[in-house]
TrEMBL record:
One of its GO terms (molecular function) is amino acid binding. This is ACT domain-containing protein ACR. Binds amino acids. PROSITE patterns: ACT. It comes from Phaseolus vulgaris.
Length: 423
């Protein structure tokens, strides 16, 4: 039954499985707010977890959420990290006590720090560093990576600290020590300081040509992607998504029924879309994966508490959901002069938050393929419809993997996309 918890510690509970391989059960019992489900799914995705199934229920004031989650890969030692996960989830839940909820001051955004280090280059370096930052609970906001002619790498990582402790000497020393451990003595210098004006002045991405921007941000998949032999089975599966609305089953709610191909971050993509469209979830049930597909039943209302009766609004919602399920991430290979460039883009929430773990997954895919990165950057790009987070990787032509030829490029795109989608 929904109601006020006895203590803040009761807001989030994590039940460990009885048998290895079984799901962990997350229970969240707190005041409701629009977009809460999206924020929860974002954190779960950031921890490398997959939502096996779930139930969401709210009376408009209080919500009760139960999620069965499993590690999506072996990247997360869940047994040792569940306390951190619990703290992160509690941090986004509205306070339980009404007086605190009404009079609390809005939380300020976390300060951005600049992590700058120089080291000798080697294969897989960028992913290894990203993995350490992820384990340290540091969120990457922007990256600038450059390889010098003498085989050195200068990395600039703009990060925020989920633990809010990066201002302390102990936390800074811990970060540099962990980096030194992973760099295995090849570190030349490591500095960590509060970011200055250069962070705000360099939020944008390097200029994209009109043709490149059109291909990267178009609503539909490009012909090259659709026709690619390597991608066609996945594309055919994604195109089978089905979204229907029903106003006959509830006097106050619109039922959204979704059947679509499962992928990593699916629930985040759906909840992000509903949050950005200012739609409230009253009840939702997420069924387990069956033969690679998921089914969802979600009872929703508009922000003023009414069901969606307008035909144009219904069509817009269905179209938007289908687009996000078919094309949640954009991955293309392009020529940058004589060089080969990999570009990955994902939509940014209206709140300004980007998708979790994208940089981690892309660098992991490139490391797996044996591809070295000559330079990399992360920034924002705005189109008429929305803001995007763009990841640009200039690939090293001297690596063992051959970058020339359609088949080779399709293999890179396929590997990166499948890693991002969890396939």
């Amino acid at each position: 039954m929904m109601g006020v918890s006895g203590a803040d510690d009761d807001v989030v509970q994590i039940q460990h499985p009885n048998n290895p391989g079984d799901p962990f059960i997350l229970t969240i019992n707190c005041p409701d707010k629009t977009g809460l489900a999206c924020d929860i799914c974002s954190i779960i995705l950031d921890f490398g977890l997959c939502i096996f199934k779930g139930d969401v229920s709210t009376d408009g004031v209080w919500c009760y959420i139960v999620l069965w989650v499993i590690p999506h890969s072996l990247l997360l030692p869940m047994n040792s990290s569940y306390l951190i996960l619990k703290e992160r989830l509690q941090g986004i839940c509205p306070p339980c006590l009404a007086s605190f909820y009404i009079f609390q001051q809005p939380s300020r955004s976390s300060p951005v720090y600049l992590l700058k280090f120089c080291c000798l280059d080697r294969k897989g370096l960028l992913h290894d560093v990203t993995k350490v930052l992820s384990e340290l609970e540091l969120t990457i906001q922007k990256v600038k990576v450059t390889t010098t002619p003498d085989g050195r790498v200068l990395d600039l990582f703009f990060v925020t600290d989920n633990k809010e402790l990066l201002h302390t000497r102990k936390r800074q020393d811990e970060t540099c020590e962990r980096l030194n451990d992973i760099l295995r003595g090849s570190c030349i210098s490591c500095e960590l300081q509060l970011a200055g004006p250069e962070y705000e002045h360099n939020q944008g991405i390097s200029s994209l040509s009109p043709a490149l921007a059109e291909e990267l941000f178009r609503c539909e998949l490009s012909e090259n992607e659709v026709r690619s032999q390597a991608l066609s089975p996945d594309m055919a599966k994604l195109k089978k998504s089905n979204v229907t609305l029903d106003n006959s089953l509830s006097p106050a709610h619109t039922l959204v029924q979704i059947r679509c191909a499962d992928h990593k971050g699916l629930l985040y993509d759906i909840m992000r879309t509903l949050k950005d469209m200012n739609i409230k979830i009253s009840y939702g049930r997420f069924s387990p994966n069956s033969m690679g597909y998921r089914e969802l039943d979600i009872f929703i209302q508009q922000k003023e508490g009414k069901k969606i009766l307008d035909v144009e609004k219904q069509s817009a919602l269905c179209s938007r959901l289908k687009l996000e399920m078919l094309h949640p991430l954009r991955v293309i290979i392009a020529n940058r002069g004589p060089d080969t460039e990999l570009l990955v883009a994902n939509p940014v929430e209206l709140s300004g938050k980007g998708r979790p773990r994208v940089f981690y997954d892309v660098t992991f895919a490139l490391k797996t393929l044996g591809i070295c990165v000559f330079s990399a950057e992360v920034g924002r790009h705005s189109t008429l419809e929305r803001e995007w987070e763009v990841y640009r990787f200039l690939l090293d032509e001297n690596c063992e993997f051959q970058l020339t030829g359609v088949a080779a490029r399709n293999k890179i795109v396929n590997k990166v996309r499948r890693t991002l989608m969890g396939w």
